[in-house]
Amino acid sequence: MAKELEFLTKRSEDYSKWYNELVVKADLAEQSDVRGCMVIKPYGYAIWEKMQRTLDDMFKETGVQNAYFPLLIPKSFLSREAEHVEGFAKECAVVTHYRLKTNETHDGVVVDPEARLEEELIIRPTSETIIWNTLRNWIHSYRDLPLLVNQWCNVMRWEMRTRLFLRTSEFLWQEGHTAHATREEAEERAKMMLKIYADFAEGCMAMPVVQGVKSETERFAGALDTYTIEAMMQDGKALQSGTSHFLGQNFGKAFDVQFLNKENKPDFAWATSWGVSTRLMGALVMSHSDDNGLVLPPALAPLQVVIIPVGKPANMPVLNEKAEAVVASLKALGISVRYDNAENKRAGFKFADYELRGVPVRLVLGMRDLEQGLVEVMRRDTLEKMSVSLEGIETYVKDLLADMQKNIFTKAKAHLDAHVYECDNYEEFKQRVKDGGFFLCHWDGTRETEARIKEETQATIRCVPFGVEQTPGTDMVSGKPATCRVLVARSY
Amino acid sequence: MAKELEFLTKRSEDYSKWYNELVVKADLAEQSDVRGCMVIKPYGYAIWEKMQRTLDDMFKETGVQNAYFPLLIPKSFLSREAEHVEGFAKECAVVTHYRLKTNETHDGVVVDPEARLEEELIIRPTSETIIWNTLRNWIHSYRDLPLLVNQWCNVMRWEMRTRLFLRTSEFLWQEGHTAHATREEAEERAKMMLKIYADFAEGCMAMPVVQGVKSETERFAGALDTYTIEAMMQDGKALQSGTSHFLGQNFGKAFDVQFLNKENKPDFAWATSWGVSTRLMGALVMSHSDDNGLVLPPALAPLQVVIIPVGKPANMPVLNEKAEAVVASLKALGISVRYDNAENKRAGFKFADYELRGVPVRLVLGMRDLEQGLVEVMRRDTLEKMSVSLEGIETYVKDLLADMQKNIFTKAKAHLDAHVYECDNYEEFKQRVKDGGFFLCHWDGTRETEARIKEETQATIRCVPFGVEQTPGTDMVSGKPATCRVLVARSY
Question: Does ipTM exceed 0.90?
Answer without folding.
Answer: yes
